[in-house]
Design brief:
Blueprint lengths: L2 E7 L3 H12 L6 E8 L2 E8 L2 H8 L9 E7 L14 E2 L5 E6 L5 H10 L11 H10 L4 H11 L4 E7 L6 E6 L4 E4 L3 E5 L11 E4 L5 E4 L4 E4 L5 E2 L4 E2 L15 H7 L1 H9 L3 E2 L2 E2 L11 E6 L1 H18 L3 E5 H6 L8 E7 L5 H12 L3 E6 L5 H5 L2 E4 L12 H17 L5 H19 L3 H10 L4 E6 L2 H17 L2 E6 L16 E6 L5 H12 L4 E7 L3 H4 L5 E5 L7 H19 L18
Parallel strand pairs: 18-19, 18-20, 20-21, 21-22, 23-24, 23-25, 25-26, 26-27
Antiparallel strand pairs: 1-4, 1-10, 2-3, 2-4, 5-6, 6-7, 7-8, 8-12, 9-10, 9-11, 11-15, 12-13, 13-14, 16-17
Bound molecules: 5-amino-5-deoxy-1-O-phosphono-D-mannitol.
């Protein structure tokens, strides 16, 4: 989704902005632009397409001396991707220039009024109203104009602004869209996301809704929502900078899959002492009901959570997609624990779902990867997944660590006789994934056979169904192959009509108690010509041999822990299909890493 950078300092602003935008590329975008102050004048360079296009039109500016500027990568929501719709947008007197992340929901009515007031619009974006509003309200004081402007805006925004009356400064403000300020030496930064500035500083301020920050090369000043000057504390980012580099892997996605064993160890290791799960910082009582809310891959981790919590704890669990949860009337009260799952901690639907749960007096526990993100800050308790930065749009190690956190949580409440055994098995997960990562030939071969398929189905029962949902999402988002996941018993209620000779169906068979049922379901699709790929524990291979065209074995693991192991071959399969198709694996079309609009 859109990315923002802002710079004021002693280095060349254009080069710094381009560096920041490069680091934000992974968020997904379709156009990019920068604006900088040159001898008191605002200059804008922007264009549709990849950053390389922008690089070509700013190469001269990189040699010149400019010290203040803003930059943007745009993921189109209102108005097609085009040069004109790209950000930054300037006011009619060229005094203000803005970049915007988020959506201004009431932009049509503001636009109509501004047109009546004599303003012309160049773009079809919602964002352009902001520059004209700033111009409209400006009587010599930017802060005043900015407050008046944001009071008129409905929706979400992170804004970075330059004004030629203040040639040394960059202004910013946010509401429901992430924004941070970075503190450097003789330079300060604004960014929508930490990787953009990590090379230059680890000291960041997290902006709260409606706070305004002004940066210059030497100073960072904050105002609260009432316009009062305030002091804020910096937070230290502890990420390893190399974590956002490919380190020899062809793609971030492959690197991140290979990081799963370490990421899981980091997530569970510090929370297990003497074979006992200790979640120190959490003050949770056993709830009467659990609601898990998330989007995409995080939602699929939640579906695994439902099966686990219900099986181990006998607590009723609902799982919901955040955008649905928010607009239905969920039955939720102070006896309900709401678990919010999010890698970025900034997904807007998930953030709003969190707020809805809190409004209904539910205690909210967030399973989040990004420290200091909005969701982490607003939840009552946080269980961090220590996956490190995830750059590829397709979530992989985040899913594995989300599952690890769910296992930790479920086991921390579990009082059954298998407790010790389960805790031991959880600790064995990283080495089992390591084993899969050391023998990927069969997965690659399967991808080489199937990457041209029109459609690939996934099928499983129970935990295997939850896992299949994630396998299917991974495949479609990066290989663009149509895919659907079905419970084993459900296919014959309609979708089996799509099975014809050679249709690939990836079947998860890791749950022995329902193995025979799945075998019958596989026979049903085989009878219609399906090409069957089975993922199962090594010890079950012999039994499955006769019905499978290909078997992708995983180490022998207790069925309870199978999803966290069996997802790795699915991720690798999706990855190799995408590579064989020549797709942009890390930045799949139309997708954004962090979805900060509704
Ligand atoms: O940052 P979040 O975990 O809240 O993101 C949720 C989804 O947008 C995300 O998992 C998305 O589905 C990924 N592209 C999946 O690979």
């Amino acid at each position: 989704m859109c990315g923002i950078v802002g710079y004021a300092g002693d280095k060349n602003a254009v080069a710094m902005l381009m560096h920041g935008l490069k680091k934000l590329e992974y968020r997904g975008y379709d156009s990019a632009g920068i604006a900088y102050l040159s001898q008191g004048e605002i200059k804008v360079k922007k264009c549709k397409g990849r950053l390389v296009n922008l690089q070509n039109i700013v190469s001269d500016e990189i040699k010149e001396e400019h010290h203040v500027g803003i930059g943007h990568t745009r993921w189109a929501t209102h108005g097609e991707p085009s040069d004109i719709n790209s950000h930054p947008h300037v006011s009619r007197d060229n005094r203000f220039c803005i970049v915007h992340n988020g959506i201004i929901e009431n932009y049509m009515s503001i636009r109509e009024q501004l047109i009546v007031d004599g303003y012309n619009f160049e773009s079809t974006t919602d964002s352009e109203v902001i520059t004209h509003l700033l111009h409209y309200h400006y009587k010599g004081d930017v802060i005043e104009a900015l407050f008046k402007t944001i009071h008129q805006l409905e929706g979400s925004y992170a804004l970075s602004i330059i004004c030629n009356d203040y040639p040394d400064q960059v202004f910013c403000v946010r509401k429901d869209s992430p924004l941070i300020v970075g503190k450097g030496k003789n330079e300060n930064f604004i960014a929508s996301d930490i990787p953009a500035i990590l090379k230059y500083t680890r000291d960041i301020y997290i902006m709260e809704d409606h706070e305004i920050a002004i940066i210059s090369s030497k100073l960072v000043t904050f105002y609260n929502s009432l316009g009062k000057k305030i002091e804020k504390q910096t937070m230290k980012v502890t990420w390893d900078e190399n974590a956002s580099e490919k380190e020899g892997y062809e793609h971030f996605m492959l690197k991140e899959i290979h990081e799963e064993p370490v990421a899981i160890t980091k997530t569970i290791g510090p929370r297990i002492k003497n074979n006992e799960i200790i979640l120190d910082q959490l003050v949770l009582k056993r709830p009467k009901k659990i609601i898990i809310v998330a989007c995409g891959t995080a939602y699929h981790a939640g579906v695994v959570g439902k099966y686990l919590f219900e099986k181990l704890l006998r607590i009723p669990v609902e799982v919901d997609v955040a955008s649905e949860f928010r607009y239905r009337d969920p039955i939720i009260d102070k006896h309900t624990l709401t678990i919010i799952i999010s890698q970025s901690g900034e997904t807007i639907d998930t953030l709003f779902a969190l707020r809805k749960a809190k409004e209904n007096n539910s205690k909210v526990l967030a399973i989040v990867n990004v420290v200091g993100s909005s969701i982490a800050r607003e939840a009552d308790d946080v269980l961090y997944t220590w996956a490190g930065p995830e750059i590829a749009v397709a979530s992989t190690k985040a899913y594995s660590t989300q599952l690890s956190a769910i296992y930790l949580l479920a086991l921390s409440f579990y009082k059954g006789e298998k407790y010790k055994d389960y805790v031991n098995q959880l600790q064995d997960v990283p080495k089992m994934i390591e084993h899969i990562l050391n023998s990927t030939d069969q997965v690659m071969k399967t991808a080489s056979l199937l990457y041209n398929s029109k459609s690939i189905f996934f099928m499983g029962r129970g935990l295997d169904y939850a896992l299949s949902m994630e396998g299917s999402l991974k495949l479609k988002e990066i290989s663009y192959i149509h895919s659907e996941a079905y419970p084993g018993g459900e296919l014959k209620h309609g979708t089996i009509a799509l099975i014809e000779k050679g249709t690939p169906v990836i079947c998860s068979l890791t749950q022995p108690d329902i193995l025979e049922k799945m075998i019958s379901n596989i026979r049903e699709i085989k009878a219609r010509g399906a090409f069957v790929i089975v993922i199962t524990q090594e010890e079950q291979v012999e039994k499955i041999n006769e019905i499978a065209d290909i078997i992708l074995p995983i180490p022998n693991v207790d069925p309870l822990f199978a999803p966290i192991i069996a997802v790795t071959p699915m991720q690798l399969f999706a990855y190799h299909c995408s590579v064989y198709k020549g797709n942009d694996v890390d930045k799949p079309r139309n997708l954004a890493k962090s979805v900060t609009v509704e």
